[in-house]
């Protein structure tokens, strides 16, 4: 199949992650995360974030988010999120399931970015015994629509959280893209801005599989290892979840991969933004481009072999991973130009 941009998960694994798998595949090592690779990976996160965080490695983002949120909540609590948050729309109720019933409180706005006002109004609309007690806020960085929270915006959100007694979780399934886009350090948009727990995506960043759950307040990590085990998320051969992180972080591949995806998204956006009949649904700030167009345009693109989803905002979504081929991005841009032209 020619390269497609329907999802960043269409990509294979990057050489750095693959190489680490190869290296980790030698000899006998202690199981269940007591091995050297896992210790090195956790240390690499502490170096990257410049703090003594607690790190856990799980298989996918749904597990990372759900278990992280579950660790912040009792079953009678609630979690504030945006209406298009992955936890709300794409996790099959896993956050509610793993927390034993904590309810997601969805902001009634179309924006993928939560504001301090959204949080305040949801957290304070009720305080009686009949309503689940708000305990956490989750933000996605970058958002599901490819937008970025600035460090100031995150700080404003975390200040609101602190004032209301809420913990702040960040779904960073594309966290590397956010760091590359902002050009700031990972610490600046996490613990230094008041984030308590980060789910750092490895899969969309170029690994075969795996996400890291990073607790900046070590007290919150208490019992998280048991939670992972109970949820079927404790890898017995943990080295294969942790070793790729060592190479990804130490070689800088994590950030290069993110920057490459972002640059390809920008390349497509620049090539199509002035076309008649074509609009960008959201500002292009990370590795995704959302194209608003007619049904006929989308049909024609599909007929030319392009795959894409339209489940967010009705636009065609194109996502660019570490392996996106700029020549293929050009092909997509010229097909969009061609199809939008005969559409007029
Ligand atoms: C891809 C993604 C995840 C992780 O999804 P899994 O398929 O469970 O690995 C989490 N959050 C967001 C915003 C995502 O795009």
TrEMBL record:
It is an enzyme of class 4 (lyase). Its cofactor is pyridoxal 5'-phosphate. InterPro entries: ArAA_b-elim_lyase/Thr_aldolase, Low_specificity_L-TA_bact, PyrdxlP-dep_Trfase, PyrdxlP-dep_Trfase_major, PyrdxlP-dep_Trfase_small. The keyword Lyase applies. Keywords: Lyase, Pyridoxal phosphate. Belongs to the threonine aldolase family. Catalyzes the cleavage of L-allo-threonine and L-threonine to glycine and acetaldehyde. Homotetramer. This is L-threonine aldolase. The lineage of its organism: Bacteria, Pseudomonadati, Pseudomonadota, Alphaproteobacteria, Acetobacterales.
